[in-house]
Structures are given as C-alpha cells and as structure tokens.
Amino acid sequence: MLAVAAALFAHSLAPMRTELSNPNATPETKQVFRLLREVYGKGMLSGQCDDKYLPFIRETTGGKEPAIMGYDFNGVMPSQSGNIDAQKAIAWHKRGGLVTFQWHWISPNADGDFYTDKFDLAAALKDRESASFRNLLRDIDLVAVEIKKMQDAGVPVLWRPLHEAEGKWFWWGKSGGEACTELYRLIYRRYTHHHKLNNLIWLWTSYGKERENWYPGDDVVDLIVRDYESPTAWSEFQELFGAKGIMFGLGEEGKLPDPAHFEARPWLYFLTWAYMIEDPAKGNTKEWIRQVYNDDKVITLDELPAWRARIQ
C-alpha cells in the first residue's frame, strides 16, 4: 500500500479535497464522496456502461457485478423518443450500486446528432436572445427534470457533462475551449443555483497533454477523468492537476484495465464502454474479464457494503 500511496501523491502539492464544489450537496452525495475518497489509492471501482450487459458480466465472472453503472441522457430531447435511464439508475441505487451519467446531446436545434457541425455553440452563447440559446437552455432544463427525479429518490450521480470535449468531435467541443468551458459553467450554475440540484458530483473529462487542456475551474469540478487510458495518462494528470487535490478516474474504457498496473496508476474507477465488454478484439476475452473482476484490487457491487461500513 505504501507503493500505491507514493504513486498517488508523487506530484501532488496539496492534500486531497474533503469537500465537494457544491457546499449544499445532499447528505447522500457527501457520503458517496467520502466513499470515493476512502477507496482512492486502495482499490479500483469496477464500472460498466449500459445495464443490458449485466447478464453477460454475471455469467462470465461467476456472479460478479460492477460497482458503478453508467447511464446516458440521450433521448430526452423533444425530437427524440424518450429516456428511462433515471428510473434505471434509481433501481440500481436501490441495489446498493453507484451511478454515473454522461449525455450524448444531439443538436439543440434538432438539425443533427452530437457529431453535427451545424450547431454553433460560440454563436449561441454570444446571443442570449437567439433561438439557438433558448433551445440550449431548454435541453439543459429537460435533463434537470431527470436529475431531479434521482435527487428526490436519494440517488447521488457522478455527472460527466460535455464528455470528450477536447477531442472536438462533438458539437460542444467544435467551437473551442472558451465556448465549451463557458457552457460547462453555465450548466453548473443552472443546476446548482437555479434548479437546486445537490445530488451531483461534477466530473471533467481531460485528455491531459494529448490535446488542449480546457479544465473549467477548481470551483466547478470534483473529479477528473480520462477516456481511454494512454500509457502516459496518469503521469500527465499528476503533472497537470496533481496540485489540485482532485481524484482521477477512467470515465470510459475499452479493455478492462490491468490490476497489475494499479500501484503505478491507481485510478479511482473504470467504466467499460457498453458493447466493448463483449469484444475480444478489444482484449476483453472471457478469461480476462473473469480475472479482472475477481482481482482483490477491483471492487465489485457485492463488496461495496464493506467499504461503506468503513466511513460510518
């Protein structure tokens, strides 16, 4: 464990944060944050996006299930067919699991999907009287309704808005870092101050030095994650963000990470992306999945009660 602690804090210039960015966070959300801090550097929380893959994971691992289940708000816009992931998340929470959400947000003007070039974010933010800005705010508020359902049910959410923005393949990244971070902070203010959503742990997705660093600010970020780990990702995160006292995780991943690397790169959690859990071409053979999920360093759903007991 000393080796893990050394890797964890090798470049840190500040102690790990003990408080969330939102001082009005619900007791349940503060408790989950305490749980994350208790786990950090001691184990890695397992995660999976899309619960349709749970039967496969159970069958492959001998009954194991991920500690974190990932959901998405894609589908809630007026031009779409709906979304029931809030209800699914509530059910998962009742089973004792942790919940994370991202949002594959189609064009607010309903003229393209999340990859569209048609929605000009910078122009929408500049003209607050425009139809584009009104549609932007409408969508933000529609997702707020879904988050409020979870808050009312006592469900804390690891919330990862505007994910992979620095990649510039989604519309929220195509206008550049200034517009994107302005939108992130707008969402933060709208949810925290206007809608009084206090069940959110705010995550920012960074690509470290691989791409431009658009970090939106210490006052609006609780956890920094990398999507699809590179060999240098951990050291880059330590160099860029180590002084902030913020935990690091893997917000999205292909091949399940190797627990043998945990002492050198003790990520808080991993979240395997949907279908990739069933893809041997990604390295996820049944033997590998079974090995990872049954490793002592990897925390699964059945092990969460013991970790929760440590923070009581």
What does this structure look like?
This protein starts with a helix and ends with a helix. Strand 3, helix 4 (85-94) and strand 4 (98-102) form a beta-alpha-beta unit. Helices cover 36% and strands 13% of the residues. The protein has an 8-stranded parallel sheet, with helices on both faces. It has helices at 2-8, 27-39, 54-61, 85-94, 121-126, 131-152, 171-174, 177-194, 233-241, 286-293, 304-309; strands at 44-45, 47-49, 68-72, 98-102, 157-159, 200-205, 223-227, 247-253, 270-272, 298-299. The protein is built from 11 helices and 10 strands. The protein has a single domain (2-11, 19-309), classed as Glycosidases (TIM Barrel). The mean pLDDT is 95. The protein has 312 residues and is an alpha/beta fold.
| Full CATH superfamily name | Glycosidases
Large-scale geometry: globular
Class based on secondary structure composition and strand pairing: alpha/beta
Computed CA radius of gyration, to the nearest angstrom:
19 Å
Listing every helix as H and every strand as E from the N terminus to the C terminus, the arrangement reads: HHEEHEHEHHEHHEEHEEHEH
Q: Give the CATH level 1 class.
A: Alpha Beta
What is the strand and helix layout of this fold?
Blueprint: H1 2-8, H2 27-39, E1 44-45, E2 47-49, H3 54-61, E3 68-72, H4 85-94, E4 98-102, H5 121-126, H6 131-152, E5 157-159, H7 171-174, H8 177-194, E6 200-205, E7 223-227, H9 233-241, E8 247-253, E9 270-272, H10 286-293, E10 298-299, H11 304-309
Parallel strand pairs: 1-10, 2-3, 3-4, 4-5, 5-6, 6-7, 7-8, 8-9
Helix pairs in contact: 4-6
